[in-house]
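Section 3.1: Structural characterization of target chains.
Under the original work plan, the team committed to producing a structural model for every single-chain target entering the pipeline before any wet-lab resources were allocated. The record below documents one such target. The sequence was received from the expression subgroup and is listed exactly as submitted; it comprises 757 residues.
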Amino acid sequence: MKSIKNILFYILIVGGFISLMFFIVKKGEPQEVFKISKVISPPTTSGYDQVKDALHHNITNPLAILLLQIITIIIVARVFGFLAKKIGQPTVIGEIIAGIFLGPSFIGMYFPEFSGFLFPKTSLPNLQFLSQIGLIFFMFIVGMELDLKVLRKKAHEAMIISHASIIFPFALGMGLAFFIYKVYAPANVSFLSFSLFTGIAMSITAFPVLARIVQERQLTKTRVGAIAITCAAVDDITAWCILAAVIAIVKAGSALSSFYTILMAITYVILMLKVVQPFLKRVGDIYSHQDTMSKPVVAIFFVTLLLSSCVSEIIGIHALFGAFMAGVIMPQNLNFRNVFIEKVEDVSVVLLLPLFFVFTGLRTQIGLLNDVELWKVCGLIILVAVTGKFLGSTIAAKFTGQKWRESLIIGALMNTRGLMELVVLNIGFDLGVLTPQVFAMMVIMALVTTFMTGPCLDLINYLMPEKKPDSANEEINKYRKYKILFSFGDSEHGKSMVRLANSFVNKNQQNTLVSALHMIPSNELHQYNIKEVERENFKPIKKEANKYDLTIQTLFKPTLDFEKEILETANEGEYDLLIVGMGQSIYEGSFLGRLIGITSRIINPEKLYKSITGKEKITEENGFDDRTNNIIRSTKGALGIFADKGLKKVDDVVVIISENEDEFLLSYVQKLIHNNESRVVMIDYNEKIKQNAGFKESVRAIEQTAPNHIALFSTDKLNQKFFTKMDLLMVSLDTWKKLVETKPEWMVYVPSVLILK
């Protein structure tokens, strides 16, 4: 009755006011004679043509074009980034190639009409403006990733390598400029300006890309990884200071003017370090948590960023240096940096930064390199860049006492250029120091030198494999017989896994090894807090293990491929039992989730492809997500899939037997009884134990060894009251499949579950 009344009220209100508005328009139309002198003739075109013209006008509107550009750029950048990762390259390589793909080198050449529609020349200033905003935010993040405290402690170790890796390629770059200036330098550009920009282009290292490669290759905790990161950080600061000086010289035009610009820049840096930084530190210490960081506080830091960028632009050393400097002086407080980077990074890296790649691609005309001579010069530029950076870093590292293997790895990493090189090249192009031809050559050089980093590291590892020392962990592995590895996400589930692992090994720790694996997306981890993140994630796990005097080996791995990392760790470590959590899809059970494989993190392109081509079933198997199913298929040893419902103890365990093959579960039952004195109830599902004499005898043998610790029940005991007394349900994978298919009523009452394969 109430719903009918609401509908009537809605009809009366809406209908009444529409009638009133119609009445007002009709009464008002006669007044047009006093305002409109010229009679408007009715349109001669059809209604369809009018709609078509209106749509064309709307879609070519500058705002609509900009939105279409952003949508296209993000999609294409994501696709190329995904493909780059599949061939073992950093995502940034794919995004740079996506920019070139959308530019005149491909789309513009083969689909000129589409390119002219999507990227008209009149729209490029808007795209450039947004890309510069994205770069400002990105350089701010790069500055925040540099921990000045760490650099002060380690800088003296890396200073020689870093500065040698700058001065050597810088000098070679200026030498290269001497040979190509006459033919390839723009008109009215001095040799000094051209040679300085060529030198700085040769000497750049991409700190963010290098940091990601170090994380993904698990070099973070190694000495060579730490040296490379520190060298790149020192390199970044030095190179940006040199770049600021070079820009000042180029813009000023004379030595005296550039002196005043550099003097103002030094004054600006001193003010930022001595005045602004202490103020921001006090603010950061007070407002270091997300719940206390209000909008006015966030505004303070954003205003600092924008003001710093503005001042550096006015001085004449480019806004990006100001953004970088603002990031460097941000409070070192870990909580503050985590919170603030979360607020900035997604928008800048996912939304705005790809615009810069595409804008660079629109400027890169590879078609201009239309004869052999130009490609020879391009090859010479690549040769000089690699020789200067790779050899310079390698020789300096060897001179400081590194072994040849470590020296070559440092050289390969320092030769990575990526995004930072494109930033420098665009600045040079905007200042008119680089011609379109030289710009295209330099972009190709940036791609080649970044692309070669991964293969170079693989080649070094192949030719000079690392000698594995007899570490403490290897000594443990040598003497311990039974090894368990569990992989946890959040600390609460991790603590439950500690309790579960302890129940299998408690009284036999001298002959066992328990390892805890924790992974974190490498693209969400920053160099300044990697050790802090590891310590914080393992603190509750170690605390829980200490309650049971359980020694745990901790494994912390930044990665973008969790499934691969789990499998490699388990298989290479030859663990006797791998325990993983039961992953769940956020769209599980929905048509969308089943069709395109949306998991809790991303759309899985591989599953989408396999589903469309019929190579994989669309529905999820056994109630698990894709990652768990792949681990089930690929793991070599025993596997336990753990569904945690807040496991506090493992005193009372129920084991369901439904197949003769489930006899392997008895070995786990024996471990629980022996090590944890657990009370185990065996459920004879389908009377398989009763029908199998050998199975029955094995159960009886356990009962004789540990009386009052094992009992045999039938399925009629399975009800809500029974399961409330149980801590854990243990079941084989095959039995679990049957239970999922039949869905017995008591399934909703089960406690935490361990599914064993």
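Confidence is low (pLDDT under 50) at residues 469-479, 585-621.
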